[in-house]
Amino acid sequence: MTTVAASSESPPAPDMNSLTVNDNQEEDDVVDPWNVTSKSAKGVDYDKLIKRFGSSKIDDELIQRIAKVTGKPVHHLLKRGVFFSHRDMHTILSLYEQKKPFYLYTGRGPSSDAMHLGHLIPFLFTKWLQEVFDIPLVIQLTDDEKFLWKDLTLEEAHRLAVENAKDIIACGFDVEKTFIFSDLEYIGQSQAFYWNMCRVQKCVTFNQAKGIFGFGDSDCIGKISFPSIQASPSFSSSFPQIFNGRKDIPCLIPCAIDQDPYFRMTRDVAPRLGCSKPALMHSTFFPALQGAQTKMNASEPNSAVFLTDTNKQIKTKINKYAFSGGGATVEEHKEKGGNCDVDISYQWLTFFLEDDDRLEQIRKDYTSGELLTGFLKKELIELLQKIVGEHRDRRAKITDDVVKQFMTPRKLKFDY
Q1: Is 277 in contact with 248 (CB distance < 8 Å)?
Q2: For 114-133, how does the pLDDT look when each residue is reduced to its tens digit (9 = 90+)?
Q3: CA dihedral 267, 95, 274, 265 (to 10 degrees)
Q4: What is the pLDDT of residue 34?
Q5: With contact defined as beta carbons under 8 Å apart, do 146 and 86 qualify?
């Protein structure tokens, strides 16, 4: 196989044969598309992860260039390092400066009736990217993946995809610029998509898939072929109704960094198919209530706040389960201060509190011991009750007809 080519600003990327998810025997952190754990209370060491994955850090220079090119203030998730790593983002900005087209692609694996707060992060940022660049967006719902990996029937996996689509639409995406699709539906409707899947499958050997994704001899063959399905939306030719059959339009993928192995494989294969390599922007993980050693899990209700939770449930979860970086007693806390690096309430505020000055004041007051844990949790509870409450209201207005509009293959508000 060819080597994954690095952009001019990137460190050398490893050969695809070495892009294994199990390449961290000497590391405390385990990061792959299905598992995220860290032995550190501060969570995953993202600087080490950048080095291990061969991506590039989103630095001040890139952030300033994004602001200059778009003419808009950068998103708080970008300023605060929630989106911290990238592949070929400078190339995307150059395309935009040259008025050349590109599009956005992100996705969701539907495994629960409702999404949780962690699932919101890539969609909130993707919505901002779509608005500032004014480009098409495709959103893949991998209900086939959840059927293969979880104890779900095909019917239930597809039902969850439709329910999750309602949560995604409630984020405020423009139906004229956004196509949401279920793999279980779209692959059967689109010859172009299936042909791209076949092309990817032919380029990747079983040994390479096993090395990249850690597949074992007991894994069903559906899992082994699934990476070709997640790769295919990276190619504009998979959506002829949107891009008029063109295969030369690059895409930008905002996602959590645990999904990167799929797209390292895709970037290796793309030149052999005569397609552009996808660019990526990687986010950190949204930590579980119990601590940053693992990400929030939809299968563990008390690790997460869901977008269907009531105000009472939100208050109870934060007060009961949110790991505190404060002192064991009020006296100790006032003397030594709180640790924002491990305090989950503060960490969650960095994702959702948009006011930079307010966040900095909270950090100072908590670190000094002046702000007690109970008051910090109260600040978070009130913010989340507002965010989740407004989301619930928007979701309640989304009818089956609205979902059908978003999920019907069609031309979007762009000409190619």
Answers
A1: no
A2: 899 999 999 999 999 999 99
A3: 10
A4: 79
A5: no
